[in-house]
């Protein structure tokens, strides 16, 4: 049974070493997040920000420490179920040979959602992120990096995850589009109680977006 006020995500003394066990990539990371929280992660290049997101999405397991999601240890949650609820939007998204429309609907087809709901969600998120009609048939080579970031964000949002992990989602966007996106994410987290962790180098974006900022240096939380 879940204890009362169980956080959505809890990391307890999470550490990670490289495969030879010689280099420490993350050291004793502990924090927790509740439903609807927005956390910003900052830190210099190589500080461990992407690595931390990969642990939360279980693309890698920690060398020590525990990660709990929604009251369960991450290692006990089947990967398919976990990746429907914890979605990582990578820094340099790929469309893996699919068109934009296929990229957006593929995760919903995997979930075996009815066609009408798939179409409804496609329209909903396309409109929220201002994705024009003429992008739908395009493939990766026919999109700029910024356009791919928007598509990748829509792909994450269309899954309506409990926890969205965003790795530098606005790095290739012009500032108008970046602000528009951040505002959309804030209203989403408020209305749907989606919890969001966003890695971003731009302090101004992080300040606007988050309730809380965690700064990493050489794999450690410094504040
Ligand atoms: N599996 C791994 N084995 C060895 N070293 C790794 C592994 N994964 C990441 N690293 C190293 O860990 C450090 C942190 O990398 P990470 O990509 O998490 O940094 P970051 O803070 O996201 O950087 P950036 O802002 O440049 O994206 C880097 O020095 C990287 O080379």
Automatic annotation (TrEMBL):
<dbReference type="Pfam" id="PF00005">
    <property type="entry name" value="ABC_tran"/>
</dbReference>
<dbReference type="InterPro" id="IPR015854">
    <property type="entry name" value="ABC_transpr_LolD-like"/>
</dbReference>
<protein>
    <submittedName>
        <fullName>ABC transporter</fullName>
    </submittedName>
</protein>
<dbReference type="InterPro" id="IPR027417">
    <property type="entry name" value="P-loop_NTPase"/>
</dbReference>
<keyword id="KW-0547">Nucleotide-binding</keyword>
<dbReference type="GO" id="GO:0016887">
    <property type="term" value="F:ATP hydrolysis activity"/>
</dbReference>
<dbReference type="GO" id="GO:0005524">
    <property type="term" value="F:ATP binding"/>
</dbReference>
<dbReference type="GO" id="GO:0005886">
    <property type="term" value="C:plasma membrane"/>
</dbReference>
<dbReference type="GO" id="GO:0022857">
    <property type="term" value="F:transmembrane transporter activity"/>
</dbReference>
<keyword id="KW-0067">ATP-binding</keyword>
<dbReference type="InterPro" id="IPR003593">
    <property type="entry name" value="AAA+_ATPase"/>
</dbReference>
<dbReference type="InterPro" id="IPR003439">
    <property type="entry name" value="ABC_transporter-like_ATP-bd"/>
</dbReference>
<feature type="domain" description="ABC transporter">
    <location>
        <begin position="9"/>
        <end position="222"/>
    </location>
</feature>
């Amino acid at each position: 049974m879940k204890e009362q006020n169980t956080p959505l995500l809890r990391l307890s003394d999470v550490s990670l070493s490289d495969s030879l066990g010689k280099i420490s990539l993350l050291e004793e990371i502990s924090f927790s997040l509740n439903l609807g929280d927005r956390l910003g992660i900052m830190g210099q290049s190589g500080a461990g920000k992407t690595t931390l997101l990969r642990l939360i999405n279980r693309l890698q397991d920690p060398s020590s420490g525990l990660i709990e999601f929604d009251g369960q240890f991450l290692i006990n949650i089947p990967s398919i179920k976990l990746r429907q609820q914890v979605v990582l939007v990578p820094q340099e998204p790929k469309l893996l040979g699919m068109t934009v429309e296929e990229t957006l609907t593929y995760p919903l087809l995997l979930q075996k959602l009815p066609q009408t709901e798939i179409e409804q969600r496609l329209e909903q998120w396309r409109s929220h992120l201002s994705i024009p009609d003429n992008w739908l048939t395009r493939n990766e080579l026919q999109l700029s990096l910024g356009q791919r970031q928007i598509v990748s964000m829509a792909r994450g949002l269309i899954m309506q995850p409990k926890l969205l992990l965003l790795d530098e989602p606005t790095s290739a966007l012009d500032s108008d589009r970046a602000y528009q996106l951040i505002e959309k994410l804030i209203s989403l987290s408020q209305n749907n109680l989606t919890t969001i962790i966003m890695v971003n180098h731009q302090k101004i974006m992080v300040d606007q977006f988050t309730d809380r900022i965690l700064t990493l240096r050489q794999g450690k939380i410094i504040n």
